[in-house]
Write a structure and sequence with these properties.
The complex is a heterodimer. Chain A is of the alpha/beta class. Chain A has a single domain, classed as Rossmann fold (3-Layer(aba) Sandwich). Chain A has eleven helices and ten strands. Chain A has a six-stranded mixed β-sheet, sandwiched between helices. The longest helix of chain A is centred in the last third of the chain and has 33 residues, at 279-311. Chain A starts with 7 loop residues before the first helix and ends with a helix. Chain B has a domain at 52-200 and 267-341 and 348-418: ABC transporter involved in vitamin B12 uptake, BtuC (Orthogonal Bundle). Helices cover 72% and strands 1% of the residues of chain B. Chain B is built from 17 helices and two strands. Chain B has a two-stranded antiparallel ribbon. In chain B, helix 4 (76-101) runs antiparallel to helix 14 (310-336), helix 6 packs antiparallel against helix 14 and helix 15 (348-358) packs parallel to helix 17 (394-421). Chain B is globular, with a radius of gyration of 23 Å. Classes of the chains: A alpha/beta, B mainly alpha. Chains A and B meet through helix 3 and helix 5 of A and helix 1, helix 9, helix 12 and helix 13 of B.
Amino acid sequence: MSLQAQPVEQAGPVGEPVISLRGISKNFGAVRALDAVDLDIFRGEVVAIVGDNGAGKSTLVKILAGVHPQDSGTISFEGRDVSIHSPAESRTLGLATVFQDLALCDNLDVVSNLFLGREMGGLTLDEEEMEKRSWELLQQLSAKIPSVRIAVASLSGGQRQTVAIARSLIGDPAVVILDEPTAALGVAQTAEVLNLIERLRERGLGVVLISHNMADVQAVADRVAVLRLGRNNGDFMVADVSYEDIIAAITGASDNAVTRRASAQAPGGRAGDAEPGGPPKVVEAAKDVGRTGTEHPDAGGADGRHSTEEGRQP
Amino acid sequence: MTNPIGPKAAAASGAPSGLATDRQDERLARDEGIGGAIASFRRRVAGGDLGSLPVVIGLVIIWAIFQILNPNFLSANNLVNLSLQCAATGTIAIGVVLVLLVAQIDLSIGSVSGLSAAILGVGITVAGWPIWLAIVVAVAVGLLIGLAYGLLFTKFGVPTFVITLAGLLAFLGLQLRVLGPNGSINLPYDSWIVQFAQAWFLPPWLAILLAAVAAAGMFLSDWLRARRRRAAGLSTGPVSLMVIKSTALLVVLVVAVAYLATDRGVGMMFLLFVVLVVVMNFFLVRTRWGRAVFAVGGNVEAARRAGIKVNRIYVSVLMLGTFFATIGGLLASARLTSASLSSGGGDTNLVAIAAAVIGGTSLFGGRGSAYSALLGILVIQSISNGLTLLNLDSSIRYMITGAVLLLAVIIDSLSRRSRASHGQA
């Protein structure tokens, strides 16, 4: 490998990781989806997991969420070894996962969705307390939902994402895992979700952000963990790493279509020792990055607009 | 979760002050007072959230047409008959509503109800059991059938459509087997279960008292909810609206009860059916189990990830489906004073399913209410009863019932499309 991967232990926040994966492997038939992957998640830190299609990001998330257990390797939560066999166990541990498809019930209203599976009340539901707490939660997140008594089906994409993230906070989790939270969102909505992620970090939560969008990753993440073909391929502090280094770790080559394109536009770009990477993969990465690259300034502008709007609120 | 920013802080941040927490968003239309309630109702209907409005309108039209064609239709005597005709199949339809809510179907309700009738008949005449024992055995068998459906569905993933289609045939066979070679057993007319179904009516004073209790209960429940909402800083509807609602209910119930009392009155069997509907509605709307039923029907994967034990919900709902089929079968045989090969046969299956759908329960899961069993069966039995009064052949009855079912499904589909175009699919 051509990269200088920095060990987390030196660069990450001090203190014990809240959750720590060691040597996680997972096979689907003959396909080795994950191969001895390590990952640490700290409180108050946003760690982005990036990688190309098929790098194993979703598999890693599903293991943490209890959708399917790993074949080998250990997961320790606050120092003790745990096994996560079901979504319920994952939630009890303090891991909240927001999947890309959001998993909302369109026929139920916002309150019902927020408290689904953990409704308040004794023999009967305490709708008033749930509605009150819903408003409090949404206001803390500065979420803009006109009414919590309308069916989730009638909300916009960003509002649905907000509801899904707010729901993950109901159980007071230690870690929130967001799978492609901005993939289907417009510019302003993306900025809102990024603000939301920062608010989660301010609350001292560990945030895992799965994303294809390098602009989003660089905007909010403290640390980037790169997966490539099911293996760890670098762990960087965002402040210390260049965009090109991350792309190189994702594609497995520092000389690829993305960097060549970048250096053609800005002379003096880095050239590293090339490693053979399949041409289709490189092209795909280029496409991806090209899109995010053009989106970045817009997202920044929306971000700025949003923070002024936010300034009116205490 | 502790909350540093309460509603007060939010109100201070520039949102219009003096408004309840859930009314602060400036994008919301403000509906105050009774005029506001009417306006928001009109908006809901225009947006495709029809609720039970089409059924109620349909029922009024049907009753008007039959009353014009045959002045006996709305006579107290006929309405008492109508209420008794509704009870048995309506009870089965409650189970169908539950099963449809989780987006499944039970096609064997007719056979299961026939089987329970056969067990009752054979139990109390051939085996000489006391009636309560026969009922317990029939209910136990019904619950076991539902449990078997539930396990087959959750463990092997066989579609309920197929499981219950197999059940339809198998339990029809079992019903024939239980009945034995005679194929028909008459229940003793003086047994309490037959008396309950045929001859027990509420005395008028008790019926009116119950109507008053129902209206007072509705007002109290509305008023208590408004108080809790105010305590939680949420908006409440005007008290005048609550008074109007419960007074309207009181007037309707008292007039209905008083009119029926000019004949035999309100049958105990019909009262049992209505009580079952109200109880099921309570469980669906006010409990975790009910919330889970709607969630499973709306998005089963979301429900599973929310930690709901989806399989238990399926099993419980399928068991309730066969439970209500059993109760309906017992009521039907008590009303006909016999258990026979035709118990639960013919159109029982489809009438019960059609009632649930006509009443407004979606075939696709997640939308509906226990009250749709009551409204739907009233519509179907009114048509059937009215056509019988006109001396029309059952061939025509079936065709007209089929057309009404089709109409109900078309209305459901149209309102779904309207919801979609109003962003509420």
